[in-house]
Amino acid sequence: MLFRYCMFYTGSTLSILPESFYRAHFSNFLLEPTKIKLKSYDGSIILPVGVVNVMVTYNNRSDSCSFLVVQSGQRPLIGRDLIQHFQINIVFGSAYEQQHTLSSYSPEKIAENIVNEFSELFDGTLGKYKYGKISLKVKDNVQPKFCRPRPIPYAFRKGVDHELEKLENLGVISKIETSQWGTPLVPVLKPDNTVRVCSDYKVTLNKYLEDVEHPVPRIEDIFNKLQGGQLFSKLDFSHAYNQLEVDEETSIMLAWSTHKGIFKVNRLPFGTKPACQIFQREVDKTLQGCEGVACLLDDIVITGRSMDEHVHNLRTVLVKLKSAGFKLNKNKCKFFQDGLKFLGHIIDKEGLRKDPSKIDAILKAPIPKNVSEVKAFVGMINYHGRFIKNLSIILAPLYDLLKKNTPFQWSKECDRSFQKLKKIITSDQILVHFNPDLEIVLECDASECGVGACLMHKMPNGELKPISFASRILTKAERRYATIQKEALAIFFGCKKFFEYLMGHKFTIRSDHKPLLGLFGENQGLP
Q: What is its EC number (predicted)?
């Protein structure tokens, strides 16, 4: 978005946008209320409609700047605030006409400025959520359980002592004399050879805790929120769960029994049964109403259909996180990337791709020697099921090995399935983002042992591009169906599987089984 022929007005302390200009170009930017009053040259009072924050670039320098939005006027006024801020040299009497852009052509510079603007979020300290303390509830008639401290290996003891001291200084834990609850520690060696202190709540508290019901978003819904994005940013919380304070009663229930004594836990620790749902709930509340944003636990991805929209969405998220008291890990945050690794996939403006690091594990998998290894391989493949046409049909021989009371015997059919999947998984298949403005096509097919469906978009050039694949194997009863019944079942399966995409939209069903037309009457030309 370009500012053409802005008027530089040294008579104005602040910079101003006419409301008509704001509505035409920046209506997607948040207009916030303001108490500022302006006085015109004739002494009359002007009440601004509001204030809007946008990114301004001048001479390769990008900053977030405030503009007052007023009802009158035709052209943006650059006041003394921005003239001084950007050190603009104005030669009076010249035909000075300069283009200014709110869309940056230097994403790195914009990212640097945003990090500086929100430096408090990235200062490396532990955040403290401001919107209430967390309370965990135990079921009725539960007696407290205390486990004696477990012996700490001598090689880990120095690291554990250092970590306990650090957590105590941060206020995450506090020393207490006694407690009826006590959970033992489990030290874990991190890749950098430092020690992470974990607590084994499965032997004490978890079985007695009441469930916290809050939906963790599905992968499909997460990626659908990001469709249409051009660049992508990812924010990572610093010590995510520890940013949530717990109440006094909960801190006692969460107490640790250690070789250095008993510590109550003042922040929500990782490892408690409802921790994921609680953290997701609080972040969802914080980011409610944000556009172009998807969040799963401690990862937030932001995008936009343009750089201006992206910056606006990103700033909106950062403002809300700052207001809530959260802190971010600067080293793990990424800004304005062409593509991001997220949830085992790579997302970019074209769609979804498989993460090569995940595929490498599949390619290196040896031939399974028992049922457990078959389950592990099938699990890795199924995670990428949306990329593979008729996956369940290809997997059928391996599924047979997982049936109860079936002796493990690696057959030629199993080996063919195994090798075929390794070959298919290396394809550079891209799944396009769902776009309700494009034509939708559902292609369905059936075989002797399974049914499959592919949801596709028909692009403006007529090309069909997949959005997602789905399949399942047939039950014993379904395998006895006539061919036409299996083909009809494939359509039913596809419509049910992709119901959320299809409902409310016109779409075309493609099938290679023409006899299906007869099910809808001889006078019907299409199903």
A: 2.7.7.49
